[in-house]
Amino acid sequence: MSLTTDLSQAPPPHENAAKGMPGGGKAGGGTLDTVPAPRRRSRQRRERLFQWLFLVPAVVYMALFFGYPVVKNVVMSFQDYTTATFFTGEAPWVGLANYVTVLSSSLFSTSLLNTALFTVGSILGQFVIGLALAIFFQRKFPLNGILRSLLLLPWLLPLIVSSAVWRWILDKDSGALNRFLGDLNIVDTGVPWLTSTSLALIAVVGVNIWIGIPFNLTILYGGLQEIPDELYEAGSLDGATGWKAFRHITWPMLRPVVSVVLVLGVVYTLKVLDIILGLTNGGPANSTQTIATQSYALSFQEFKFGEGAALGNILVIISLVFAVLYLRASRRAVDE
Amino acid sequence: MKSAIRKNRPLAVAVTALVGLPVLLSGCGTTASSSTESVSEIAVMDYYNNEPDKGFIGDALNACGTKAGVTIKRETVPGKSLISKVLQQSSSKTLPDVLMLDNPDLQQIAATGALAPLADFDISTADFAPGVLSAGTYKDKVYGLAPTVNTIALFYNKDILAKAGVTPPATWDELEAAAAKLTSGDQYGLAFNANPTYEGTWQFLPVMWSNGGDEKNIDTEETAQALKLWTDLVKDGSVSSSALNWTQADVKDQFLAGKAAMMVNGPWQIPSLDKQASLQYGVVKIPVREASQTAVAPLGGEVWTVPQTGNKARQAKAAEVVSCLNSDENQLAMAKVRNTIPSKTTLAAKFAEENPKLATFTELVKTARARTGQLGEEWPAQATKIYTAIQTALTGKASPSEALKQAQGQ
Q1: Which residues contact A261 (CB under 8 A, 6 or more apart)?
Q2: What is the C-alpha radius of gyration for chain B, rounded to an integer number of angstroms?
Q3: Which residues in B lie closer than 8 A to residue A3 (C-beta atoms)?
Q4: β-strands B41-46, B71-76: how paired?
Q5: Is A208 exposed, middle or buried (0-12, 13-18, 19+ CB in 10 A)?
Q6: What is the mean pLDDT of residues A48-68?
Q7: Torsion, Cα of B340, B344, B350, B352 (10° steps)
Q8: CA A241, CA A116: separation in Å to the nearest integer?
Q9: B34: part of which helix (H) or strand (E)?
Q10: Cα–Cα distance list, B83 to A20, B80, B101, B103, B393 (Å)
Q11: Residue B394's closest CA among B262, B180, B205, B241?
Q12: Interchain contact B68–A (C-beta under 8 A)
């Protein structure tokens, strides 16, 4: 706010300077003209200084809360950082050893594959259901607003609460889901949702989809509201209704929003930790172990902070690729 | 022109203030301390953040504080965040004067140099059970003492066993037979926890250790036999495969609901079990493979330590409090109310007599082994391998011996 007021004060002196300079040149160095020049320059310098000063809080904040942790994490990944380091401050440099250990671990490929499956599965489910619901709520019907706000619930619940409830719903012997399926005679024995190596990842993805729907719904609904009604009216005159209207009006108009939702979704999903820890702790037999959970386990359960940081950095790099995509997508969205 | 400058001045002041604020704030955090000051208050940190333990420990601390002539400034943090809090405090040099640690974490923290050896103060370590001392020892020096400890045993539902005509098992064969016989309909014969955390490892240790398994190298015949027992119990359906995801609290809930006839659990569950008046339960040692083997139980419990805060006077007072917490009277009193076992072997006989419900646990604690006794700081890595092997075998991804071999090689 204050930055804009400062800048709005800036133009007048510049105009003065522009007018004054040629005049000074013509007169060939009269006292009236030569004296203001250094004063002007110092004024300009002062304004520059003020502009920078206004930037300082933001820069300090970024450096302190974003720059420092990132740099610290990168540094840590090249060190033998143990519990003792916290007390003594000594962390010997080990070069790339942490990365070598982490990447050559037999668990890395499992975690990487699980991360990919988890992310793709979650995003696909969240997006398709979120978009379908957003289009559904475009219609006008009673209780529309209430239903839409109720759908935000998964988003508002603390993740630890959601995962505890889902852990109970998905329990093999006394879980609500198996009871329900059993009563419908769909299954006759308990399905080990969270304790079978082939089902656990699917179950965890399912819960994450449930959590992610509100985000997708909200953003996509907002995007749909932006599309002018006239387009549909004009389209319907030309025979574009239903699927055709979606294919040729909604989808192209929604594309910028879609790319933002997808890329943000990927970044959020890659780093999901609490849901998995709450539901399965990475088990059974590492079948739901992702890079995020493994990094957490290395750092905070095995106290191998260096290796945990190395794995964390690998995750950051993967996220960064998508962050760049996001920046490009959002820039294009603005251009359009 | 002048007016423009004047207009900017308040802004400049504001900017300077904003930039300067953090510096000022951080300056406020440091307090001067000298070792000659008289100590009137000491800081204590522990993880007993739930009643009733919170109150019991608080009362004991306050009584000991009064005795030492200091007031206690106590902070309780959730168990999961204790270690990160301790690490944070040790890097900012703000460790409390008295610190409680879960015993398998002691060596890890002692290795950092953050703790003072108790031999520096006048604290007696006589009569403590060997397992308790080994849990509190790092490189031949005792750093922490536990007033009371615990372990795990086999709880059984007397009514269900009587109805099925089953006596509490003492050997693995008997356990498998009993568990199979007690499994019917909604009810499983046995419940234990085999989840992918240190808790899963902890519950497996009794069968592994009693059979001569060694945590240093888990790729042995003895450990494989123990893991085969766990695997067979799940494969037979005597134990629900949900054990792969259960916590010890979940196991207790299954037992309470009558969905498990027997369970592996510790004495801290006794208050919840006693709340259900209709439940009649007994406790026996976890079975051994052959009757001739002795049951070896893992030692659980929290140790109290004196961190290196650099203030000798405060450390001395802190040591007085730790010593007081470990006195005979306090051990007996705390053990009674918290359903734990006094650490001093000299108190065991008297305690078992007065608390028959805890007799089995008292017996086990005498010979219980500390998880970090052999491996020290290496324990977390090896504990991870153990639960990984358990999970691999129980999900059928590999045979017990193959799973152990894979995990050990990792």
Answers
A1: A127, A130, A215, A216, A219, A220
A2: 25
A3: none
A4: parallel
A5: buried
A6: 92
A7: 40
A8: 37
A9: none
A10: 68, 7, 8, 12, 31
A11: B241
A12: no
Report which of B256, B194, B270 is spatially closest to residue B231, judged by C-alpha positions.
B194
User: Are the C-beta atoms of residues A118 and A201 closer than 8 Å to each other?
Assistant: yes
> What confidence score (pLDDT) does residue A335 get?
58
Residues B22-33 have a mean pLDDT of: 43
Question: Helices (DSSP H) in B211-344: which residue ranges?
Answer: 221-235, 248-256, 270-275, 312-325, 328-338
Distance from CA of B116 to the nearest CA of A (A): 13
pLDDT tens-digit profile of B100-132?
Answer: 999 999 999 999 999 999 999 988 898 999 999
Rounded average pLDDT over B297-324: 94
pLDDT surpasses 60 at A26: no
Instruction: Say if the Cβ atoms of B11 and A88 lie within 8 Å.
Output: no
How many DSSP H helices and E strands does chain B contain? 17, 13
Q: What pLDDT does A35 receive?
A: 53
Out of B195, B259, B391, the one facing A173 most closely (by C-beta) is B259
User: Domain limits of chain B?
Assistant: 41-150+300-367, 153-296+375-409
Q: What integer pLDDT is reported at residue A4 of this predicted model? A: 39
Please indicate, yes or no, whether residues A179 and A276 belong to a single structural domain of this protein.
yes
Quick check: B324 and B64 in contact, CB under 8 A?
yes
Tell me the fold of B153-296+375-409.
D-Maltodextrin-Binding Protein; domain 2 (3.40.190)
Identity of the residue in A9, A167, A173 whose CB atom sits nearest the CB atom of B4: A9
Kindly state the percentage of chain A with pLDDT values over 90. 54
DSSP class of B134: H
pLDDT given for residue A8 in this prediction? 40
d(CA A183, CA A292): 37
Give me the number of domains chain A comprises: 2
Q: How would you class B240 by CB atoms within 10 Å of its CB: exposed for 0-12, middle for 13-18, buried for 19 or more? A: buried
Tell me whether residue A293 is in a domain. Answer: yes
DSSP structure class, residue B287: P
B294 or B20, greater pLDDT: B294
Please, what is the average pLDDT of chain B?
Answer: 90
Check: CB of residue B135 under 8 Å from CB of residue B302. Answer: no
Q: What is the rounded average pLDDT of the residues B56-65? A: 95
Chain position carrying tokens 């740099």? A71
Looking at the structure, tell me whether residues A102 and A54 fall in a common domain. no
Q: What is the ipTM of this complex?
A: 0.82
Name residue A79's amino acid: Q
The whole-chain average pLDDT of chain A stands at 85
Phi, psi (deg, nearest 5) at residue A173: -90, -40
Which of A86-100, A239-253, A289-303, B223-237 ranks highest by mean pLDDT?
B223-237
Instruction: Determine, for residues A197 and B397 on separate chains, whether the beta-carbon distance falls below 8 Å.
Output: yes
Asked whether the CA dihedral A223, A225, A231, A234 is positive or negative, the reply is positive
* Length of chain B as a residue count: 410
Distance separating alpha carbons of residues A8 and A2, to the nearest angstrom = 10
pLDDT band at A88 (very low <50, low <70, confident <90, very high): confident
pLDDT at position B191: 97
Write out the two tokens for B42: 């000491």
DSSP B37-102: SPP-EEEEEES--STTHHHHHHHHHHHHHHHHT-EEEEEE--GGGHHHHHHHHHHTT---SEEEEE
Thinking of the domain B41-150+300-367, which architecture would CATH place it in?
3-Layer(aba) Sandwich (3.40)
Range 4-23 of B in CB contact (< 8 A) with A: 4, 7-8, 11-12, 15, 18-19, 22
| Residue A31 or residue A136, greater confidence | A136
Kindly determine whether residue B113 and residue A89, on different chains, have CB atoms separated by under 8 Å.
no
Domain that holds residue A322: 97-335
Residues A81/A312, Cβ–Cβ less than 8 Å = no
What's the gap between Cα B132 and its chain centre?
Answer: 12
